Amino acid sequence: MSEQPEVPLKGRSLVTLDDISTHQIEELLHKAAYIDSHRREVAHTCDGRVLATLFYEPSTRTRLSFETAMLRLGGSVIGFAGAQLSSVSKGESIADTLKTVSNYVDIVAMRHPKEGAALVASRAASVPVINAGDGGHMHPTQTLADLATLMSRFGRITNLTVGLCGDLTFGRTVHSLIETLCRFGNVNFVLISPDELKTPQYVIDRIKATPSCSYVEVKDLAAVIGDLDVLYMTRVQQERFFNEDDYLRLRDTYILDEEKLSHAKPDMAVLHPLPRINEIAVEVDNDPRAAYFEQVKNGMLMRMALESSLLGDELPGYVPLQPKEVQA
Amino acid sequence: MSEQPEVPLKGRSLVTLDDISTHQIEELLHKAAYIDSHRREVAHTCDGRVLATLFYEPSTRTRLSFETAMLRLGGSVIGFAGAQLSSVSKGESIADTLKTVSNYVDIVAMRHPKEGAALVASRAASVPVINAGDGGHMHPTQTLADLATLMSRFGRITNLTVGLCGDLTFGRTVHSLIETLCRFGNVNFVLISPDELKTPQYVIDRIKATPSCSYVEVKDLAAVIGDLDVLYMTRVQQERFFNEDDYLRLRDTYILDEEKLSHAKPDMAVLHPLPRINEIAVEVDNDPRAAYFEQVKNGMLMRMALESSLLGDELPGYVPLQPKEVQA
Amino acid sequence: MSEQPEVPLKGRSLVTLDDISTHQIEELLHKAAYIDSHRREVAHTCDGRVLATLFYEPSTRTRLSFETAMLRLGGSVIGFAGAQLSSVSKGESIADTLKTVSNYVDIVAMRHPKEGAALVASRAASVPVINAGDGGHMHPTQTLADLATLMSRFGRITNLTVGLCGDLTFGRTVHSLIETLCRFGNVNFVLISPDELKTPQYVIDRIKATPSCSYVEVKDLAAVIGDLDVLYMTRVQQERFFNEDDYLRLRDTYILDEEKLSHAKPDMAVLHPLPRINEIAVEVDNDPRAAYFEQVKNGMLMRMALESSLLGDELPGYVPLQPKEVQA
Fold first, then answer.
1. Among candidate residues B192, B154, B142, B120, the one with its CA nearest the CA of residue B33
2. A21 found inside a domain
3. What subunits make at least 3 CB pairs under 8 angstroms with A?
4. Is residue C129 located within the same domain as residue C158?
């Protein structure tokens, strides 16, 4: 954890979580918890601020979360989403669009189908840019939502046994969560997937390079569910399989229902990045272990923490974390 | 009128007008009138509130009305409309979307092409849901706009002769208005349509079951226009007819122009749910009896009354109706 | 300059710049400069106001500029853009849409592909309508942005040598700028284009009819760049040429790069209506003479000045121009 000297968040962009220190991540988690219990006090933190949501591909859930976050802080929003963007894409470069929009707003949340687009945008803009997803690459605020959910359930993001289940090959949220947890250390990963959808080697290498972390790879959720503090579900898509028989044979193994959940610890937390199709049975929603709609709320709270921090707008009454407390 | 005990509006959803009592409808009408004459006083009633407009099919007029209503009360808005929704519809259930959005906002206005969607939504959401139209089914705030227009023109919604003209078979706004007026009683309905587009039997039965109401069915607008206090126009669409000859022969009978209007009472009110194509001649717009653009304003006012009531936000200075005054 | 007596801006629409006096244009320029240096003071000028952006064709850049302008004045925004509009266009006339929307909002910015649409809209609406572009016709706020950029660079919009380069046949922004500068007089125009894309005769006639203005038509940017105070670039599109050879031969002549710029005056200002494709090399962006992103900011400031003026909302602390000062 030999990180470089910390650069304050004010005025900066967030393209990947590697842009910020572990202490800053903990500060954001601390802020999110403060915001949740002080909704009224923070409601004017960003009065007069304007956020632009530039969504070159639609992602309604993420867009609404960024927008609500700014509104709940007192600011306002402009933007475009998917079909509305035609005139922007009329041959104009991302750099020119960001230089233009920098004249209008105080902060930008951008989603783009192309890997690297957020980095290009952040370099052209004269205001902070938050990466709201660029291709299969990075989606840092989803990982912040995941971490905040662990924090709200366990009061910590370390010393946990974290199961990740389903498609571990293509699920970028899973990779990003593993890599970020490795920065904090002291996590046991249980990687649960069919052979066709195992965790990529570079992610395994990241765990191996972290002395305080360990991992096992297994195929059967039911066999390990009793060991887990956290179960992070993802969807197993049929098109990932060579033949339908394999898919049909395996599918049910990776569907969480009340029967499987009955073997889990009473305080295990079930996470899912949503949207969920059928990989978690609807009956699970009412189980107190279901944390995936809380995760949605935590995503909004972390975006509130992030937006206010990058803008340099201080939350009234908020007392920052002491660095000493953090470095346990 | 043996209604069940009244449940307060605060925190509830509105799927159909049957969800609320006649006294609550009168209260909303009273609030709308108060709002109209106290625009400044009510401008911060919903400060800090957020409305989501979830429009699974576009209906720009209705969406803008709900949004303006919230803005005019001091709140703000997020949402999607039609083409923007792709990621939401990516297989996610309405219930999951509403559970997600409940984490962001204080109240939802939803439009969906499928009958029953609003009921499903209201059950999944943890915040109030207003039905902004679901299929051919229900669109309760349109009826509220109609009632408010009668109230602003006549000071009452009873003891009126109400003509409904045009397509009485498929026009859901007409059915909903008739059924709601029957709850209050003392209305004479004049049902004006070609044979091909008569009022459905279940609506006729509703009138028959109301001792204080009566009806006649006629084909010729000109013959009855002099008797009417209210003329509710709807469009006669060519595709409803078996052959073009019938359509062409009948069409003009159901077009309101200044000539026909010259036989009407001087204080008759002309309503129309809009958009209007050619069933009301443009020359009528300047006649003081034209009330259809007022109806648009009344729709916004009723949505302001409804949104603030479901949120439980009290209008500054507003004195509620006394139940005694209501039960005349 | 024998203009008609001035009608105050409050409550009026802006369809073309001919609707307002030169003194009012100067007042708007003066207001925009005031707004830029008093952002905080003006942030509540339009509290409680609502703007509708009715964009029947997408123009994201323009829409976001109008919206930000209203938000920066404390107001809020509703509207539609492109794909969202389907229900509006469902056969409803522009007049009916504007009569409807007039019940919701305080001011409208409308863009429409059809020439004359803004005039129709302004006549139907009971609130001010700003033309945000109608067909190939008029786009007055772009010209206001151009003028504000001259004003901020030179402190004046007269006594300048203004080069206009590229497609002078089809570029409506160029025609509108020339015509408006002629109203103020004392400008030397240098019209730089290939033979295929020369300035239309009616624009030339406008210059000829202005005794204090002059013009030359040339083909070569490099030969005249040293004489210019202002260089207004536009794009030369391949489809305007009869054959590809001509296009390829000419293209580079109308691309501005650092080499050409090295022959220009040190305080020349480079303008462009954006989006830019390749007609200005990216290397020019960092040259202090590049004014095209400033132009974006000035567009927003002029829209703030315009919106507040048409609404009749006074900017706190603002002292109006004295007519005497203006008529130099």
1. B154
2. yes
3. B, C
4. no
C147/C248 same-domain check:
yes
Please provide residue A106's backbone torsions phi and psi, each rounded to the nearest 5 degrees. -100, -20
Tell me the pLDDT tens digit for each residue of B211-240: 999 999 999 999 999 999 999 999 887 777
Instruction: Report yes or no: C187 at the B interface, CB cutoff 8 Å.
Output: no
User: A95: closest CA among C300, C276, C69?
Assistant: C276
Q: Is C76 exposed, middle or buried (0-12, 13-18, 19+ CB in 10 A)?
A: buried
Annotation-wise, does A263 bind a ligand?
no
ipTM, 2 dp? 0.93
Residues B61 and B146 in one domain: no
Radius of gyration of chain B measured on its C-alpha atoms: 20
C178 in a structural domain: yes
Q: Which amino acid is at C117?
A: A
Same domain as A276, residue A150 = yes
Q: Higher-confidence residue: B274 or C138?
A: B274
Q: Which H or E element spans position C79?
A: strand C76-81
CB distance B231 to B264 below 8 Å: yes
- Residue A82 belongs to a domain with what CATH number? 3.40.50.1370
Number of domains in chain A: 2
Which of A72, A83, A282 comes nearest B83 by C-beta?
Answer: A83
Q: Cβ of B4 under 8 Å from any chain A Cβ? A: no
**Closest partner CB to C103 (pick from B276, B285, B297):** B297
Greatest CA span in chain A, whole angstroms?
Answer: 59
Phi, psi (5° rounding) for residue C14? -125, 100
Predicted confidence pLDDT, tens digits, chain A (328 residues): 445 678 999 999 999 999 999 999 999 999 999 999 999 999 999 999 999 999 998 889 999 999 999 999 999 999 998 755 555 556 789 999 999 999 999 999 999 989 999 999 999 999 999 999 998 767 899 999 999 999 999 999 999 999 999 999 988 899 999 999 999 999 999 999 999 899 999 999 999 999 999 999 999 999 999 999 999 999 887 777 778 888 888 778 899 999 999 999 999 999 999 999 889 999 999 999 999 999 999 999 999 999 999 999 999 999 999 765 444 4
Residue B292 lies in a domain: no
HEC per residue, chain A? CCCCCCCCCCCCCECCHHHCCHHHHHHHHHHHHHHHHCCCCCCCCCCCCEEEEEECCCCHHHHHHHHHHHHHCCCEEEEEEHHHHHHHHCCCCHHHHHHHHCCCCCEEEEEECCCCHHHHHHHHCCCCEEEEEECCCECHHHHHHHHHHHHHHHCCCCCEEEEEECCCCCCHHHHHHHHHHHHHCCEEEEEECCHHHCCCHHHHHHHHCCCCCEEEEECCHHHHHHHCCEEEECCCCHHHCCCHHHHHHHHHHHCECHHHHCCCCCCCEEECCCCCCCCECHHHHHCCCECHHHHHHHHHHHHHHHHHHHHCCCCCCCCCCCHHHHCC
Chain B contact for A113, CB < 8 A? no
The answer to whether A278 faces chain B, any CB pair under 8 Å, is no
- A145 in the same domain as A134: no
Q: How far is CA B119 from CA A314, B13, B15, C84, in A?
A: 42, 9, 6, 25
Measure the CA–CA gap between C12 and C10, rounded to whole angstroms.
6
Please give, rounded to a whole number of angstroms, the shortest distance from the CA of A36 to a CA of chain B.
12
Domain assignment of residue B265, yes or no: yes
C-alpha closest to that of A256 among A278, A275, A226? A278
Size of interface A-C (CB pairs under 8 A): 67
Band the pLDDT of C100: cuts 50, 70, 90. Answer: very high
**Pair (A311, A218) in one structural domain:** no
Residues facing residue C50 across a β-bridge: C76
Could you give the CA distance from residue A70 to residue A56 in angstroms, rounded to a whole number? 20
Expressed as residue numbers, the domain containing A183 is 141-295
